[in-house]
Design brief:
The protein is mainly α. It is 45% helix and 11% strand. Helix 2 crosses helix 4 and helix 2 crosses helix 6. This is ArsR family transcriptional regulator. It comes from Micromonospora chalcea. InterPro entries: WH-like_DNA-bd_sf (IPR036388), WH_DNA-bd_sf (IPR036390).
Length: 185
C-alpha cells in the first residue's frame, strides 16, 4: 500500500533514516545500523523496505555479503519532501505531529553527537541558536531563495578530504510580536 509523503515522514524511524541519507550519501542497511544503533534491526529493515517500496529510497547497488544480498541505497529527495499543497492540506494537529517527529529526530541527532565522545561545539563548529529579523513576505521569500542558493553551492561540494558532513536544520516561523501585514488596518 502506497503511503503519502506526510504519512511516510511522520514515522520517527523513517524520518531518521531519511535524514541519515541527506548530503547525497549512499548507505547500506549495515551502515544505517551503525548510525542508528538505538533502532532495533528488524524495525530498521522494515522501515527501509517501506521507504524503498514508496520510492523514497532507491537501490543503487547490490553485493553478496555473508550469504545475503546487501543493497546500497540513495535518497530520492523529491519523494522525501512535503510539497506546499500537501502542507496546506494538513490540519494543525497533523502539523503538530509532524513537527514533533521532526524535533524528535533532531534530538536523536544531537544525542548521537554528544554520545560520540568529547563533544566540543566550538572545535566541531556546531551550535544551536535562534535569531530574529523583520521582513515583508516578499523580502522573506527573497531571503529563502538566496539562502537555498547559498546552501546549494556548498552542498554541491560533496564529500572530500577535510570535509565533514554537517547537518543544517532550519525552522522559519513568523514571530508572535505583531500581526501579519495583511491583517493590519
Amino acid at each position: 500500500m502506497a503511503l503519502d509523503t506526510v504519512e511516510l515522514l511522520m514515522h520517527p524511524v523513517r524520518l531518521r533514516i531519511v535524514q541519515a541519507f541527506l548530503g547525497g550519501r549512499t548507505l547500506t542497511t549495515a551502515d544505517l545500523r551503525s548510525e542508528l544503533s538505538d533502532v532495533p534491526p528488524a524495525t530498521l529493515y522494515r522501515q527501509v523496505a517501506t521507504l524503498a517500496e514508496n520510492g523514497v529510497l532507491h537501490t543503487v547497488g547490490e553485493r553478496r555479503a555473508r550469504g545475503a544480498v546487501e543493497r546500497s541505497y540513495r535518497l530520492h529527495e523529491a519523494a522525501a519532501s512535503v510539497d506546499p499543497d500537501e502542507a496546506r492540506a494538513m490540519s494543525p494537529q497533523r502539523h503538530r505531529q509532524a513537527f514533533l517527529t521532526f524535533v524528535a529526530g533532531l534530538l536523536a541527532d544531537f544525542d548521537g553527537y554528544l554520545d560520540r565522545g568529547d563533544p566540543d561545539l566550538a572545535r566541531d563548529v556546531a551550535g544551536y541558536r535562534q535569531n530574529a529579523f523583520h521582513a515583508t513576505d516578499a523580502e522573506t521569500a527573497e531571503f529563502v531563495t538566496r539562502f537555498r542558493e547559498l546552501f546549494a553551492e556548498y552542498a554541491a561540494l560533496g564529500p572530500g578530504p577535510g570535509r565533514t558532513r554537517r547537518l543544517l536544520t532550519t525552522v522559519l516561523l513568523p514571530g508572535a510580536d505583531q500581526e501579519r501585514p495583511a491583517e493590519r488596518r
